Amino acid sequence: MTDALTLTPREAFEMLLAGNERFVSGTPEHPNQDAARRAEIAPAQKPFAVLFGCSDSRLAAEIIFDRGLGDLFVVRTAGHVTGPEVLGSIEYGVGVLDCPLVVVLGHDACGAVAAARAAVEDGASAPGYVRDVIERVTPSVLAARSGGLTEDGDIIAEHTRHTVNLLLDRSRVLADRMAAGRAAVVGLSYRLADGSAHLVTTRGLEVTVDSAS
């Protein structure tokens, strides 16, 4: 079993990307998905990454990163918007389960971002608590507009960066872990058509950001 306590943030990141590469190439290994793994982790979990992503049904984390039971501590909301429950869940993954990596996963054709953009540009609104989701995405759309960004991909990348910064600004647990070199936070953008995940931003991990993302 992969023990998160033996992995550095970089090793965890490389393991995650390797799984995505297998998924994209059509050669998944489906690790840790059998009865033996189920029995092995029943007493305790030791995931190697916290994955905070959009609730979109096309972003099943263990599938697109070719992982299995006990590998990822997954938190998902529409538009990966944050709140106390999200922050508490991420802090549990980092502070209690000792995950060395936190991933914010955005994606193209995000409905929450599109709705926020429509609200900014056309004044469109939504009923119920969907409006609250849109309002939490709106600052990212406004920041993108103020920076001259108009393409959907650029706006989605800005929202991913905004979420990464928000997590570190609001969570002292996460910020302290990163400062100590025990955790890193990365933002990825997932492409629905080909299944690839591309790096948008990183904090606490020195890697090259894909300019095409």
UniProtKB/TrEMBL annotation:
SUPFAM superfamilies: beta-carbonic anhydrase, cab. The keyword Phosphoprotein does not apply. InterPro entries: Carbonic_anhydrase (IPR001765), Carbonic_anhydrase_CS (IPR015892), Carbonic_anhydrase_sf (IPR036874). It catalyses: hydrogencarbonate + H(+) = CO2 + H2O. It is an enzyme of class 4 (lyase). It comes from the Bacteria. Its EC number is 4.2.1.1. Belongs to the beta-class carbonic anhydrase family. Catalyzes the reversible hydration of carbon dioxide to form bicarbonate. This is carbonic anhydrase. It comes from Streptomyces alfalfae.
